Amino acid sequence: MIPPSFEYLTPSNISDAVALLQKHGDEAKILAGGHSLIPAMRLRLAEPGYLIDISGIGGLDYIQEESGQLRIGAMTCEAALEESEIVQSKYPLLLDTAKMIADPSVRNMATVGGNLAHGDPANDHPATMLALRASVVAEGPNGTREIKIDDFFPDFFTTALAEDEILTEIRIPSPPSASGGAYLKIERKVGDYAAAAVACQLNIDSSGSIENIGLGLTNVGSTPIRASSAEELLKGKKPDENMLAEAGRLAAADSEPMEDLRGSAEYKRALVNELTQRAIKLSLQRAEGSR
Amino acid sequence: MSKHTVSIDINGTTVTKEVDSRMLLVHFIREELQMTGTHIGCDTSSCGACTILMNGRSVKSCTLYTVQANGKSVKTIEGMEEGGALHPLQEGFHEEHGLQCGFCTPGMIMRAAELLEKNPNPSEEEIRWGISGNLCRCTGYVNIVKAIQYAAEKMQKEAA
Amino acid sequence: MSELKTTPEVCGMGHSMKRKEDARFLRGQGKYTDDVVLPGMLHMDIVRSPYAYAKIKSINTDAAMAIPGVHAVITGDVLKQYNLHWMPTLMSDTQMVLPTDTVMYQSQEVAAVIADDRYIAADAVEAVEVEYEPMQAVVDPFKSMQSDAPVLRTDKEGKTDNHIWHWETGDKDSTEKAFQNADVVVKENVYLPRIHVASIETCGCVASFEPAEGKLTVYMTTQAPHAIRTVVALVAGHVGLSEEKIRIISPDIGGGFGGKVPVYPGYVIAIAASVVIGKPVKWVEDRSENLQADSFARDYHMSVELASSSSGKMEALRIKTVADHGYTDAAANPSKYPAGMFSICTGSYDIKNAFTEMDAYYTNKPPGGVAYRCSFRVTEAIHAIERIVDVLAQKLDRDPADLRMQNFIQPEAFPYQSALGWEYDSGDYPRALKLAMDTIGYDDLRKEQAEKRAKGELMGIGLSTFTEVVGAGPSKDFDILGIKMFDSCELRIHPTGKAIARFGTKSQGQGHETTYAQILAEELGIPAAHIQIEEGDTDTAPYGLGTYASRSTPTAGAAAAKAAHKVRDKARKIAAHLLEVSEEDLEWEVGKFYVKGSPEQSKTIQDIAFAAYTNHPQGLEAGLEATHYYDPPNLTFPFGSYICVVDIDPKTAEIKVRRFVAIDDCGNIINPMIVEGQIHGGLTQGLAPAMYEELIYDEDGNILNGNFMDYLLPTAVETPNWETDRTVTPSPHHPLGAKGVAESPTVGAPPAIANAVVDALSHLGVENMDIPITPYKVWQVLKEKGAVA
């Protein structure tokens, strides 16, 4: 499996990269870690005439928490999330997610920005970012703009990025105290895309009631899905088993899975149902533990 | 098609060559440099037979263009022996019968090298997850896990 | 083996000698086919059919030929000029090398491009324009057998259906009678799906034809280089390739498992291309080609019936099978065994009446089937019997271990004549099962299971007590294309007492360079470290049928022992000459001959070897060499008892193999470390089809999972920490008392896993589940039984 020929371009800053995007239009593709793009090129499912490698652009690889936000440079590789002390200590959902993406060698190349900008509903970070209520920063010819994650995935394999925009940063609100999160994924084997996966991020008040909750679903629709009915149900509540079961049912109802080799739509809904309950439970435990 | 001159440190020696933009790093290593210890087992970054270290991190050289390695340091199985002595991982794979056909072995060893660099004393569980991007069809992994444990122990003793 | 006959320095049988071949593999210096580079070498890439069944209207190669660096595009019409567009299969069917008018399965070879490098070749493949007229594919063998199904093999004159062959064995009438008179009959449909060996190294070759000498050298990923040489001579003799000028070299092989036994079209095209162009041509398939076009394994639809008395005595077995062979029967079985050794299906049980019949059909799928690490269709047979025994236990409300104990062939019954005609050489099945049960704590597990079940938790315990049949085989019954299935060893002792030995087999990871040296060390006392083993070069090695079906130790291992004995016979003459005594006065002990009654008068094998070249007796030829072609008197019958424990998540249906104990008995052991490694690998290749692997086609014959993202090989995470142990019941007829081993666990593991999962669900009324048993399948069963919402 040999990729087709292409021109390889190495801009040294974002504005040069944007200019190259403007120049070559839909013939150009941004090359970040390349672990979605290069396999697609080898299968000749993607045949871009120009690859714009942004790995040489400095300042896109960082994990910093400041002024109430975790800021992740788009070129930060997944392994860096796993290794980050701040992620390990405060962002269990991110840590869970990073560990479930592909395999360790792939995570050394694959980037957080690429995982989002590819627009693949089977990727893991989109649901995570939904649960975390993140936003992404896009840089284009007219400067930068921040896009709420809920607005970022309008359609199947489509993002809100304009053709001449580059995703440069992910911003995640720092969790308040007594927060917890979890990512639970059912995969056919390690490294596979999810049959279904659920991301949960929440915080609780002193009585143990949920103040805020985010629930994101992976690979059960044409876009990553926010389980908003379940979120609404749980907000302000201290859920018992019955309410958790209801939350699971609502999340399953919010999902729109398709049958594929991983199973039927009904099976995937059942997984969403169960994983939602388990992810909430685990997040609650972690929130209690972080008090 | 664009041609590019790349300079890559391979096992401690800097190599400068002109390559096509689409040349995969694994082909560069195997065919341009005639270092055939790095193998090809799939097209989808699934099997790990092509695993090398790039700037100290294990990567799958079938899913990288050579141009992406420009200016970086690459280590392959051929660079693991030091002063004629086998690396503890190579020794461990031999002592614990961690290889049969040998095809996955170089990739497995390179992956394990980074694993032990980051986590010098991994549990069995951590080893199993740590090599989960490297497929072996012969050994059933039991002795690969033991081989990595052997190397971990030896490296820790040496470091102490 | 109770005691070691040799010191660690000599390292004969029973020593866990570290492998000699590791030295190169550890350093990345293994030499695999894709590592071969020859001066002026060109690269071949293949145009493949997007359709499972289509007429080829036209092939336009102009655009491809116009690409700089492209030397040739070879089509079926080109090969037809040389009458090389079809070739025979090992089962005497016929297979296209390249089609002239019709493609019969998706990803079939349509044309081949020869170019300066693999990048140009890949571009040229894209540039070849093929116009197809798709036809409705026949994918399901049960549709293929219908009288109104389109006849697929229109190339066969007079063919009016898709039936390939009917095979049957056993006593139909007595079996029918036993079923009619039985107290209890159980019946189950058991399907073993199409799977793929998926060795991590794919298939390929470098063909190099030197026009001046007319000599063809082919480096090839083949498990059977000698047979391949003869096949090439037979297929291409008419274009001037004569067997003495054909050299097949099988370099290091990155896993075989039966997938590197067949002759694939790619090899033949590369050879033809090299002959036509006069330059070396390399072809190495990529993973998708490997999964989508190379020989499959299994694909048996079995209807299995077992009759017993009310007390559980098994009385009769009957199996009717539909075999899907794809568009041609390209199985790699011995000629007289179209269904391989399927008739081992009575397994480890004393069943007096048995009958099995099978019908094979063509479909629009790739041809096969090969073994996937099992001796010719034994996995299918054992899966059938081990599943139906559990179904019977369930019906009789009997513990499956207890029912097995009741029906085992007893140790004193060996050699045992099975109802389907095999003579089992040796076995002690109760001992192996007892050891497995003690090791895993069977009784406690059953208690735990009862407690868990009461709490709504799902836990299952599965057994498999299998018998394998390996080491093909005796020349009266076993041949491939007429060539008898012996194997060989040519042994030379050097003047300094070191040795080289060459074999007709070919290791693909089994460690022959170590184990064969150990056999010779055992027999001669020359340290194994000083015995060089070579295989795989037909110009130097003696003729042999290769390595598959766990036959290397039973055949070539025996040949090594026999060749060593011949060398020893001559050594005795030389020793007698050196010691000035008669041959009868000499006694052999490992490494030396001594004079009976005066052990201080002795000559070591090294002394004797030196004398063989410097001081050989008058009237005796100089040198110390021997060759032996071993024709086994019988097959060997390794066996084992496996117990698997699974836990199933009652909501998500995830399946966790908690424990797996494997007790294997492969007779006397040459190298315990290597045997254990073989068992680990075999168990993992049992786990794989049991839970993960299946080649899936849609109704148009499109493969849905032809890459490693969707064809799921287990990783270290899915694979349990295998617990292994052994019993030793030597083979009475093998010179070393050894059997084969590498495939037993692939045969034995799938039913243990399937039985464990079914056992976990049996209280819901589940009797059978076909492999691969995935969480999704289990969830569907739970759903159907009302156990999940």
In CATH, the topology of the largest domain in chain B is named: Ubiquitin-like (UB roll)
The outline of chain C comes out as: globular
Average pLDDT metric of chain C: 97
> H/E order of the elements of chain B?
EEHEEEHHHH
Give the averaged pLDDT of chain B, no decimals: 97
Query: Rough shape of chain B?
Result: globular
Q: Give the strand line-up of the largest sheet of chain C.
A: 3-7-1-14-11-12-13
The low-confidence runs of chain C, each spanning 5 or more residues with pLDDT under 50, are none
In the CATH hierarchy, what is the superfamily of the largest domain in chain C?
Answer: Aldehyde oxidase/xanthine dehydrogenase, molybdopterin binding domain
The CATH superfamily of the largest domain in chain B is identified as Beta-grasp domain
Give the CATH level 1 class of the largest domain in chain C.
Alpha Beta
Determine the number of helices of chain B (DSSP H or I, runs of at least 4 residues).
5
At the fold tier of CATH, the topology name of the largest domain in chain C is: Aldehyde Oxidoreductase, domain 4
| Main structural class of chain C | alpha+beta
Please give the count of helices of chain C. 19
Q: What proportion strand of chain C?
A: 25-35%
What can be said about this structure in brief?
Chain B has 160 residues and is of the alpha+beta class. Chain B has five helices and five strands.
